[in-house]
Amino acid sequence: MSIRRLSEAMVNRIAAGEVIERPASVVKELLENSIDAGATRIEIVTAAGGVALVRVSDDGSGIARDDLALAVERHCTSKLADDLDDIRSLGFRGEALAAIGAAARLTIASRLHGAGEAFAIDLAGGRGETIRPAALAEGTRVEVRDLFFATPARLKFLKSERAEAAAITEVVKRLAMAHPAIRFSLNGSDRTPVELPAASGEDARLARVAAVIGADFRRNVLAIDAAREGVALQGFAGLPTYSRANSLAQFLFVNGRPVRDKLLLGTVRAAYSDLLKRDRHPVVALFITLDPGEVDVNVHPTKAEIRFRDPGLVRGLIIGALREAFQKSGPRSSTTAAAATVAAFRPPAGRPPPAWRPPPSRGSVALAPGFAAPAQAAFAVAPSADARPAAEAAPETFALPLGAALAQLHETYIVAETADGLVIVDQHAAHERLVYERLKTGLARHGVARQILLIPDIVELPADDVDRLAERAAELAELGLVLERFGPGAVAVRETPSLLGAIDAQALVRDLAEELAEWDKAASLRDKLDRIASTMACHGSVRAGRRLKPAEMDALLREMEATPNASECNHGRPTYISLRLADIERLFGRR
Ligand code: ADP
Ligand code: MG
Fold it and tell me: Which tens digits make up the pLDDT trace of 42-57?
């Protein structure tokens, strides 16, 4: 075939594929335009997940009659002068309207600020463009119907209506967070409405952030306000205890633009690394402001990725500011548990502390650097020899594989003495494993045993989460959790898995909802059993940070012995380690 120049319409359709990936991309582009136009009110209406209809109306500057035809042409923009290094608007590529017009039926009606009348332009699959008078009081109304009718291949890649509608909500929330002074409303037959009134005054930003993340975020945040070499960082960092099971609640903005940037997400993770367990994610809303010349926003067609001229500076600023905030907030963070453990191991008054003298040093024992200090600290804290209920343990217990429980350390580890050494059990990991195995056996037989709550627990959740939970209700019931829809924004929990004991059903359901948000629809919950089990175990009765009575410790050890695969938790981490006497002797250089 000889080489031909592609038609304008074809070029636009190809280009549209990059910019408009799904209905949520349409909403994002239209909102960006309204924000750039200085709107104070933006109304969004969708139908059928945005495929049938997306309509965005604003009270912004409007478009002049003679500019309407240009607005829908590719590479036509009012925003970019000559300097790609000085982009102060959300848009600048002049591609969005052309792309939307190439893939869908597009109508733009607009009234230039101060003009006497409004005009409209219609486009379908890139064709059309007659300009006609229209009825519109102010601003601009963009209507997009039958998305991808001109490029039907794309339709096959779309998710369910509900998932597309949810993605649109997500886009609206993210942009709204960065622009608290603008009132946003999102409506449609395919969704629960979202209303975000304009917020003003000192508290505006937090008010908007809390309206999006949840009212309880207010009580669980540290305010961040720092600057370094022309880069400013403001916003809110959730307390480590206010963590989530996924990273969807990390909202990051650069010059008012929502970004999901790997560098930034990794940096936030690093800032929390000492304070959070590996499978928990912090909740943050952080706004970075810097000179537009210091950041390249033209890296990606949808402008979701960015590059900083000096990434090290931004990284250092975020980590420094977050860590300082955690330190200042003092005992609200994780230091409380340590203090409680120290108290727990203090010998009872009136008894002399156990005699303990440093052993004569033996020059041949080389300690790794850094090893000496923690070891010293541990000894200073815990001459815990008298925390031994060992005398009560029956002699035959010592002969069992996991031995006789002697003590619990740091409310997390159980120390047991065996015939030839000692065993340290991570009670949380062990419990996770046990719950997992019990869930599996329960499922294999007749479903997991459930206990009925006397009063159903009502858990308020975003509508999307409610939908997801309701959709999975039958599967969850098999796993012992019986819940049902309770209005548009809540579920009622009626029964919980008995094997979890008395649990915080609220927290469990919230975490499960977050996990469902991340999972593929097709995957059955049985396939995700390990994740569910560990989520449930996290909320079950024996978790890290809980004091166990000697009988409870022994019971846990005996159950581990009776359970298959008990030596590893379901993430492959060990549930216990054992040290034989010989190993211990080697540690002390006796061998
Ligand atoms: P870009 O936003 O990159 O300039 P678009 O294709 O999204 O490209 O829009 C083209 C132009 O149409 C914009 O530069 C702007 O001048 C005009 N425009 C689009 N939407 C609006 C709106 N809601 N209000 C006012 N002007 C608009
Ligand atoms: Mg635009």
Answer: 999 999 999 999 999 9
CA 259 to ligand 1 centroid distance, Å? 21
Taking only the tens place, the pLDDT of each residue in 306-325 is: 899 999 999 999 999 998 88
pLDDT of the residue at 568: 60
Its pTM stands at 0.62
Torsion of Cα atoms, 23 then 205 then 518 then 484, to 10°: -100
Residue 49 near residue 163 (C-beta atoms within 8 A): yes
- In the numeric block, which tokens belong to residue 582? 């010989």
Q: Give CA–CA dist 388/316, Å, rounded.
A: 47
Interatomic CA distance for residues 377 and 369, integer angstroms: 15
Residue 95 CA to ligand 2 centre (angstroms): 7
User: Predicted confidence band at 541 (pLDDT cuts at 50, 70, 90)?
Assistant: low
Phi, psi of 562 (to 5 degrees): -90, -5
The span from the CA of 486 to the CA of 500, in Å, is 24
The three-class DSSP label of residue 409 is strand
Beta bridge partners of 275: none
Return the SS3 of 5: coil
How many beta carbons lie within 10 A of that of residue 589, not counting itself? 10
pLDDT in tens, 431-443: 877 887 887 787 7
Q: What is the DSSP letter of 359?
A: P
For the CA of 58, the closest atom of ligand 1 is 23
Report the pLDDT value the prediction gives residue 179, as an integer from 0 to 100: 96
According to the model, what pLDDT value does residue 492 have? 93
The distance of Cα 491 from the centroid of its chain, to the nearest Å, equals: 21
**Residue 12 Cβ < 6 Å to ligand 1:** no
DSSP code of residue 401 = T
For the record, the structure tokens of 296 come out as 């390249």
Which of 258, 322, 315 is closest to 287 using CA atoms?
258
Atom 20 (ligand 1) nearest CA: 33
Find out whether the beta carbon of 46 lies less than 6 Å from any atom of ligand 1.
no
pLDDT at 232: 96
- Is residue 20 lining ligand 1, measured as CB closer than 6 Å? no
Q: How far is the CA of 53 from the centre of ligand 1 (A)?
A: 19
Confidence of residue 197 (pLDDT cuts 50, 70, 90): very high
